[in-house]
Amino acid sequence: MSSYETYNRIFKLGMQSALEYRMDLIFSLLSAFFPIMIQYFIWSAVYADNPDQAYFGYSYHEMIMYTIFAAFTTRIVMTHVEHEMALDIKDGHLNRYLVRPINYFSYRFFNLIGQKMFFNCLMVCAIFAVLICYSIYNGTPMKLERFLLFLAAVILAFILNMLISYAIAAIAFWLSEISYFFEMTGLFVIIISGGMFPVDIFGPWVNAMLDYSPFKLTIYFAANVVSGRLAREEIIAGIGMQGLWIISMYILSRILWRIGMKRYLGLGG
Amino acid sequence: MEIIAVKELSKSFEYYTKELGVRNSIKNLLFRKTLIKEAVRDISFRIDQGEFVAFLGPNGAGKTTTLKMLSGILHPTSGSVSVMGYNPSERKNEFKRKFAIVMGQKSQLWWDLPAIESILLNKYIYQVEDVAYRKSLDELTELLQVHHVMNVQVRRLSLGERMKLELIASLIHKPQLLFLDEPTIGLDIETQKKVRDFLKYYNEQHKTTIVLTSHYMKDIEDLCSRLILISDGQLIYDGNLKEMNGAMNQTKVIKLKFTERVKLEQLQTYAGIRHAEDYQATLEIPKEQVNAVSRELLARLPIEDILIEDIPVEEMIVSMYQRKRAQ
Question: Membrane-spanning regions, if any (chain A) (predicted)?
Fold first, then answer.
């Protein structure tokens, strides 16, 4: 018997428990549309005077497409799992994982994939539908390749974001009142990841700084892959960068958790 | 065979205090004076295989802290712990497969799913073979009579049912050693009894070593051949419950019922009146005087009923705690 079976089981349990809450699922689907509506009206107002003008390098259509794709992608990659992990640390629920022969991170990871599986598939379908509508509306053929690259990018973005959450959650080893901290970091991470609007808005200086962080590689990158703003070479390079950041964040979060765990176990530190 | 060996075990925590009022809260925001609490101080004991041992002590005495050190959740500040030949704080998987811990107030069951899902997950986590799994599951569900709730979402179950399922989930891999942290807390009397009967049977049948913490005297009297008493982080008694009676209890209680009203003055020749009212009285008498005193009482007073008892364990323990604090 291998640990594969264990984590497969955890994955399935995550899926089952997500499906237990049908209304919750419906609401979370609906709530994905509201930000899109708001953004649609804002950008329509911004572009109203000069429909042909490009702001921040985006034409009106591009901006709307970005908004739609970014909203869906945000829903896919943002997990809020840092809240659950922080509560595990704060309330001592971590104990029940420590005493069993399982790895906490893997447990959480497979559970999360299970929980998000159904919802994320729906979101990907929604994006696919938008792409089809867009190509019909424009009379341009849809590029399947771009969609497949998007799938790869969004899966990596999900993993990368999960690792960012995992690293952030380690803060709970030191701070016990962390709910506002996560509220703050949650919103902040969404903004600098391009979940609200393209990161280009912040200007070249901030962008250059963000190039040295993993955030742009989550929502901003995936949304631009699917919207067609990036050339194939840029996409491949971006996916490579995602891979590198995944490895670095994995190492960083492991180190943070190791130090935090020593504190949790009462080793001082 | 020795299964747990603890030597000069200590654990201290840092904490801080806050005086009353907003001003002190602000002061605390900027500056906190850390204090050290010694939760466990210099405890040593050994437990053999198959024993059923109770950890007893007031809230905050260090029982749970000790259990946590035994199961590898906490690192000791000093001293040594050996459990089944392992050092728990290394948290080796091999070690984890040999024991289980049930924390009364912290569930390992998936809240939104039927318990059978969590139990099956533990089968995989602990790598239990199919045949052994089937056998354990059948035995445990039979003993605890929970067939009918196996497929109900955990959050819809009563506390008692949840506790039973928690026990099944913890025992599915047949651990050699089971830690129970207040397993009967909050349960009704009938369920408490069922859980107790189960534990007793399981311990006898499978020779599983069980270490239990509880506040309920009944748990301990019914189940545990051995008692480890902890107060203020220190071990104050380790031994047989009945022997404790002998060793600690130098006095007996005489309960009297009278046929007619007896005045207090008539009793005042005896030291140790605990309680006296018109038709009844309770006296605490040194053991060696019990015979003489009771003979005299029968001769002198209009007695309907006389009862000579040991001091109840609870009282004895409370007085031991108090003695400890006074020291």
Answer: 21-43, 63-81, 117-137, 149-175, 187-206, 235-257
